[in-house]
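for the writeup, i need someone to sanity check this before i put it in the appendix. the sequnce is what the collaborator sent (i think, or maybe the updated version? ugh). structure was predicted straight from it, no edits. if anything looks off just tell me and ill rerun, i have time this weekend
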Amino acid sequence: MFQKNIDLKNFTTFGISAFAEEFAVFSTVEELIRLLDETEKPLTILGGGSNLLLTKNIDGVVLKNEILGIEVTEDHTDFVILKVGGGVVWHDLVMHTIDKQYYGLENLSLIPGSVGASPMQNIGAYGVEIKDCFLKLEALHISDKKIETFTKEQCEFGYRESVFKRKYKGQYIITNVYFKLSKIQTLNTSYGAIDAELNTKGISIPSIKDVSDAVIAIRKSKLPNPSELGNAGSFFKNPVVAKSIYEKIKQSYVNVPSYPINESELKIPAGWLIETAGWKGKRIGDCGVHTKQALVLVNYGNATGKEVFDLSQKIIDDIYQKFQIQLEREVNIL
């Protein structure tokens, strides 16, 4: 059933008011098909609303994915295949895998959003991306209302990228995602501050829960809780730059951090660029840059989407002027 003129403020982590002309929820593929049969208006698909900035009211229909379920489809000696509904909360899935001792997703603890949205931008943190454990997904083709299966190769995963953000944008609705997770202990603690957090706790031989707890502690120390301060997590992608640009920056900033991509390119943390440019903690009206993490833009209560977008553009322009690096937004803009 469609509801009219619904405020989407409580359906996004930015907590910004914007109205949907029509709104409906689906919890099965059959419900989704029925809703599609009942409208010819433009569609917007909403998952957890954690990677979205609403800058205007949404014409047409907003459909919220609430397909649930975590099911073991294959159980082998050393690995397991999980089928997970697109409407499952991502962190709930991670906590389930930790409880079951299934290895692979623990570094992605506490990332907001839904499972269905996770492959769209190949979410990642602390040296892990979902493509590392991804097997396949099922998605409904909107125009012919048929379920299609996409393998890892067909998703064309990149850094915060997939075919669903570019080539097939707006053409599919992800209904279920399949993950291949190890039953043999394989932990990745070398990236970021995980090892340091474990050492602080006196843990030399960590368990899967220890790694998850460490990631949660790090994220909580740096990132604001969306229920307390509206935000969409990392607002910008970490830019990949030519070595020549990196070397030029290094002449002025000897300690500029970087991560090699290949022989000719490096990745420079966008947060470092923004903080170095003086934006960290800066507030303009009711929006600003978070005081603890320059990569996060926040809504202090009554910011509009346009105000947040305009702030992000000011930052993009300033970083280009200072470093000749073009920042790219990670957050989807509507």
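The chain has three domains: 3-65, 70-182, 230-333. The first strand starts at residue 3 and ends at 7.
thx in advance!!
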